[in-house]
UniProtKB/TrEMBL annotation:
Its EC number is 6.3.2.17. InterPro entries: Folylpolyglutamate_synth (IPR001645), Mur-like_cat_sf (IPR036565), Mur_ligase_C_dom_sf (IPR036615), Mur_ligase_cen (IPR013221). It comes from the Eukaryota. Residues 101-280 form the Mur ligase central domain. Residues 436-447 have a biased composition (Low complexity). Pathway: Cofactor biosynthesis; tetrahydrofolylpolyglutamate biosynthesis. The keyword Ligase applies. GO terms for cellular component: cytosol; mitochondrion. This is tetrahydrofolate synthase.
């Protein structure tokens, strides 16, 4: 049967609009496809009543339930294993076949390609990724599509009932581990529950952070992938590339083949991966040029050379699951998947309607290497949009970064002459993003003091990044944002030239939004709201 995955943001996927049934998700494209048990063992205390079970309640409850719980701790793995056991999820691990993906750059894109290929091969496929851009359902897809809001809510509250049984159990150990179910761990475990209910055959699991002690490292993978490595989450994974590579290599398992990117950006990471693979007795295959001798790789809907590397890793892993020889020529189904698949927030082009001569180019790239790649994609994709050689378009950078700003800003050094200004943005409070409350309401579980602290911290970051930019690139104007964008017009006002700017307002504007999936998600919501008539009061 044919499965159409809608591109872009639809009315169903932004706050305030009615949700529609259908397979809209972060993935896009069209291609041909084929197609618990409650915790037990001890007396339980009375659990809270669960009255309201709508999708809107899911978004509220998940924040209230996980607020204040640490995101990462050294005992992640034993905690997650205990929860899998007590929540009755062990049978899922024995039935479902797993593909496990770690890396610094491109792991979400690789996961999307892998899932789409497996679906095209005839498997029923689950996909677990993070973060989401607009809708929390993006994190858990079945056959590359959203579950309906009602179905998602039903599974969520069924699973929450199991978690409540642990939190109110007479067993101190059960109560302790249940209280450690932070947001990411909860959604990972929920994905296992949903995949079991939906009879998923193969699940593609993207690591959250690192790999070695990530909650996803409890799945018995049949094949793993390590994408391109680089500096990432240095506060958690280590300050050196060797330390970071070691954490990512933590997903390697005895006898389980791993396909790895060539690591051209940082060749020294290969030695780390090889050392861990040898110790774990893991077959490790670097995807060097001679490993997959397929000529004339299809043109991809996702732009940039890095997407080609990601798609090749996906082909190798998906073929391993399907039992297809790795060096066989691409068939028409595979080519169609690779050519048609899109991924919201990666190499995404969004024209702005409403009489504005403006195009948004969106990419969630946030590490120095991925930002360089994304900027090259932007410059290539936006070429030729001007009004002749004497009237090139105005290129504006809209950037958010909260970590290692000096490394991030250095990534733009080779391309700085292409931009006329940069807007240093803020993002919506992540708790509001999870809750889906939009920009116009307070997030549940967030106190006024927390909001004030978050606002102060965010403003301080913007001031620091703006100051650093002005020190590094004095020739390009930097404009700081005092608060997150509430309406699309708030961003457009900073992009449109002021009377004092040395810019020609008659020229089309090409706006490159990058640095964070949170920022990209914010902008996509604002575009959707703008197109549906939610405008700033004049």
């Amino acid at each position: 049967m044919a499965s159409t995955l809608h591109k872009g943001i639809t009315a169903e996927s932004y706050p305030g609009q009615e949700h529609q049934e259908g397979p809209a998700s972060r993935l896009g494209g069209t291609y041909e496809v084929k197609r618990g048990t409650a915790a037990g063992g001890e007396e339980e205390r009375e659990t809270p009543r669960q009255e309201s079970r709508s999708f809107a309640d899911v978004q509220r409850v998940v924040v209230e339930m996980t607020s204040g719980r640490p995101n990462r701790c050294p005992d992640n793995i034993p905690i997650t294993i205990r929860l899998i056991d007590r929540l009755g999820l062990k049978p899922v691990l024995g039935r479902v076949r797993f593909v496990h993906i770690a890396g610094t750059k491109g792991k979400g894109t690789t996961a999307a390609y892998t899932a789409a290929l497996l679906q095209a091969y005839g498997f029923k496929v689950g996909l677990f990724t993070s973060p989401h851009l607009v809708d929390i359902r993006e994190r858990i897809l079945v056959d590359n599509g959203f579950l309906s809001p009602d179905t998602f809510a039903r599974y969520f509250f069924e699973f929450k009932k199991k978690m409540d049984a642990l939190e109110f159990s007479n067993s101190q150990l059960d109560r302790d581990v249940a209280s450690r179910a932070n947001f990411f761990r909860f959604f990972f475990l929920l994905s296992l529950y949903i995949f079991e209910q939906e009879s998923v055959e193969v699940a593609v699991m993207e690591v959250g952070i690192g790999g070695r002690i990530d909650a996803t490292n409890t799945v018995p993978s049949e094949v793993s992938i390590i994408t391109s490595l680089g500096y990432d989450h240095m506060d958690l994974l280590g300050n050196s590339l060797a330390e970071i590579a070691g954490e990512k290599a933590g997903i390697l398992k005895q006898g389980v083949p791993c396909f790895a990117a060539p690591q051209a950006d940082h060749p020294e990471t290969r030695a780390v991966l090889e050392e861990v693979a040898k110790a774990q007795e893991t077959p490790l295959i670097f995807l060097d040029k001679d490993v997959l001798p397929i000529h004339q790789w299809p043109a991809l809907a996702i732009g940039g050379a890095h997407a080609v590397e990601d798609s090749k890793l996906a082909v190798m892993a998906a073929r391993r699951i399907a039992g297809i020889p790795p060096i066989a020529p691409l068939d028409e189904v595979e080519r169609h998947v690779l050519q048609s698949l899109t991924f919201a927030g990666r190499s995404q082009v969004v024209p702005v309607d409403g009489g504005r001569d403006m195009t948004l180019y969106l990419d969630g790239a946030h590490t120095p290497e991925s930002l360089r790649r994304a900027t090259e994609w932007f410059l290539e994709a936006s070429a030729g949009e001007g009004k002749g050689p004497d009237a090139p378009p105005r290129r504006v950078l809209v950037l958010y970064t909260s970590r290692d700003p000096k490394l991030v800003l250095k990534a733009f050094m080779p391309y700085i002459s292409h931009f006329c200004k940069v807007v240093i943005a803020q993002v919506q409070n992540p708790k509001q993003q999870v809750a889906g409350v939009g920009h116009h309401g307070a997030a549940p579980g967030v106190t006024a003091d927390e909001e004030d602290d978050e606002s102060r911290r965010s403003k301080q970051e913007v001031v620091a990044v703006t100051t650093l930019w002005r020190d590094m690139y004095r020739e390009v104007t930097a404009l700081p944002c005092g608060k997150p964008f509430l309406y699309l017009e708030d961003m457009l006002d900073l992009i449109v030239p002021a009377a004092s700017d040395n810019e020609n307002a008659a020229l089309p504007a090409q706006v490159f939004v990058c640095g964070s999936f949170y920022l990209v998600g914010d902008v996509l919501k604002l575009v959707s709201q703008y197109e549906h008539g939610l405008r700033r009061d004049k």
